[in-house]
Design goal:
- By secondary structure, the protein is an all-alpha fold.
- Among the domains are: 169 residues, Alpha Horseshoe (Serine Threonine Protein Phosphatase 5, Tetratricopeptide repeat); 95 residues; 74 residues.
- It contains 31 helices and no strands.
- Helix 24 runs antiparallel to helix 25.
- The radius of gyration is 40 Å and the shape is elongated.
Length: 608
């Protein structure tokens, strides 16, 4: 073979043909070929030397430089690569594609594997060297994988099936890549909507894990691929029922197979499974599959669990030195711990969010209570968020004492924080239930100054403001607050309570006509009220009595008796009815009728 010292392969001539051995086609190692004699100062630019250099760089994990070597080789060899070495040179193109896979350059890798597959027909159409491109079929499989990474799953499936048809008689070759084939084909089936087929393909890895020697790490990869498919299908679901069915199928698969994905905390950390499980859980939550999200979150180990697993491994090793690979993990865990937001804390927040979306508020309250207690030294804004959420969820479950507890900590530590007003609102329920009405008025007035009337942040303070004034006996001020609320807030959780007390307050002020009208208005708006329906009818009866509308007063009492036979308000109402009947008896001229009314009045008194 001609010795080359020029950086160009040809100047009207080219190296004589040399056969590459089978090793060139089937492994990264290069067959021993006759070396070119190059000076120590110049790079050996022969095809063999460049290929050997690229292969060694890839073995060392230096894929970027390996890719550069391959590209230099192709540039210098040009169209004569096949002319010199024949179809077996397709193996060089295959190895180039394999290096591109490592840096996730999917489009270039796809083009490389496609070129490798058609190398005989295109690059080597005129070659006189007759040998075999042994990577031709395998290139189909890798080509399909690249298409899947580019989101072209239908095309990937075509290539996978074409590969399977091509090698169906080559059992040894198929066995070598069977696990990867099942995983990749199954993932693409799921992503084109063939969920049952895809799950069955991947499930086969679980069912035959012993026979096929499928590692837990590989099974975890299969689970993650399947999980992404579930999420994509849920996102495309046109009805809530369809999305729910996907979640049911996913949970069933996990019930049957999650136990065999026995990946240790250290392996989950070093193989990147922790971040992928977190993302899969978050994406599941975004797709509306909260129970599935919680399932994935439960598979994420804490940093403490990773460290414990790691130390357990180190203790049983011979010698004193920590292996470099383990030391790297130790350093990485330490770096994770030093982040402003630790991964463990973030994981807890994601879990709380999923529970909240499920409508379970107790679980997130307990999560944030734990975070408040065990993460007191997080940075200020994060601490504020934890206390805020602990107070918010305490309010949502009706634990107002805890809401006040977390609120007091918040105000003591961060009195000027932007979330202060929110926390103050959460405290209001606790203060109100403990009858600290002056403090309720103070906080409500503070919040009312900061937000416009009608703002969502003012709804609860505006409701409790009137009620606190009412409870303090400041009825004139309370009426102004009640009327303002009634005009501003429609359909709110606190409207029923405010509207009742608005009518009752008018009655207390002696404005019986307005009180009766507002009581009637309340009953029209809340005809099924179980909290205040009986009280409103009792108030209506009293107002009508004081307006000397005795017939209407009696009717209100009878409606109360019929609708709320166990109400404590009946005692007063029976007396009102008795008084109304007695007054009416005095106005009746017929003695028999008058006597009858007095008797009915007496019976009403006796019921009280």
């Amino acid at each position: 073979m001609r010795t080359m010292t020029s950086p160009r392969i040809r100047n009207g001539h080219h190296p004589s043909r040399t056969s590459l051995t089978t090793a060139l086609a089937m492994s990264i190692a290069v067959a021993a070929l006759i070396p070119w004699q190059a000076s120590a100062q110049e790079e050996d630019l022969s095809v063999e030397a460049l290929y050997r250099s690229a292969a060694n760089l890839a073995i060392e994990g230096n894929f970027t430089e390996a890719i550069a070597k391959y590209e230099k080789l192709f540039d210098l060899a040009g169209e004569f690569l096949c002319e010199d070495f024949g179809p077996q040179a397709g193996g060089i193109v295959f190895d180039y594609g394999a290096a591109l896979l490592q840096v996730q350059e999917w489009e270039k890798a796809r083009d490389a594997f496609e070129r490798c597959h058609f190398f005989d027909e295109k690059d080597c159409a005129k070659s006189k060297v007759k040998n075999e491109n042994t990577r031709k079929d395998l290139a189909l499989f890798q080509w399909g994988f690249c298409e899947s990474q580019l989101g072209n799953h239908a095309r990937a499936l075509e290539l996978y099936d074409q590969y399977l048809e091509t090698v169906k008689t080559k059992t040894e070759e198929l066995a070598k890549i069977r696990n990867a084939f099942k995983l990749r084909r199954g993932a693409s089936l799921v992503k084109v909507g063939r969920l049952d087929e895809g799950a069955a393909e991947i499930k086969e890895l679980f069912d035959k894990r012993i026979e096929w020697q499928v590692t837990p790490q590989f099974l975890m990869q299969g689970l993650l691929e399947l999980g992404m498919g579930w999420v994509e299908q849920a996102q495309k679901a046109t009805t809530p029922g369809a999305a729910e069915q996907i979640e049911v199928q996913a949970q069933l698969f996990l019930d049957q197979n999650a136990a065999v994905v026995d990946v240790s905390p250290v392996d989950k950390f070093r193989f990147g499974f922790i971040d992928r499980l977190k993302k899969l859980g978050f994406d599941s939550s975004e797709a509306g599959m909260q129970t599935l999200a919680l399932r994935f979150f439960s598979m994420v180990p804490t940093l403490e669990e990773v460290e414990y697993d790691l130390q357990s491994r180190i203790q049983i090793l011979p010698g004193q030195a920590v292996p470099a690979a383990y030391q790297q993990i130790i350093d990485q865990v330490k770096a994770q711990r030093e982040k402003p937001i630790s991964p463990d804390l973030e994981m807890q927040r994601l879990t709380a969010r999923a529970y909240e979306l499920l409508g379970n508020y107790l679980a997130p309250r307990e999560i944030y209570r734990h975070l408040v207690e065990f993460h007191p030294d997080v940075e200020k804004d994060r601490r504020a968020e934890l206390l805020h959420e602990a107070a918010r969820f305490s309010t949502m479950i009706g634990d107002y004492a805890s809401a006040q507890y977390f609120g007091e900590i918040f105000l003591a530590e961060m009195p000027d924080h932007k979330l202060r007003d929110n926390v103050s609102v959460f405290m209001l329920q606790s203060l109100f239930s403990s009858q600290q009405f002056d403090e309720v008025v103070r906080i409500c007035e503070m919040v009312r100054e900061r937000f416009q009337l009608g703002d969502e942040q003012r709804e609860l303070p505006d409701a409790l403001y009137g009620l606190a004034l009412y409870s303090l006996g400041r009825y004139e001020d309370a009426q102004v607050a009640f009327d303002e609320y009634a005009k501003t807030y429609k359909g709110t959780p606190n409207r029923e309570m405010v509207m009742y007390h608005r009518a009752n307050n008018r009655m207390i002020l002696g404005d019986f006509r307005q009180g009766a009208e507002l009581a009637h208005e309340f009953q029209q708006e809340f005809p099924e009220s179980t909290k205040f329906g009986d009280l409103s009818l009792s108030d209506l009866a009293l107002c009508r009595y004081n307006l000397e509308d005795y017939t209407a007063a009696i009717a209100a009492v009878e409606k109360l008796e019929e609708g709320f036979p166990q109400s404590e308000a009946l005692d007063r109402a029976y007396n009102i009815k008795g008084d109304s009947l007695v007054v009416r008896s005095d106005d009746v001229e017929d003695e028999a009728e008058s006597a009858k009314l007095r008797e009915e009045g007496l019976q009403s008194y006796l019921k009280a």
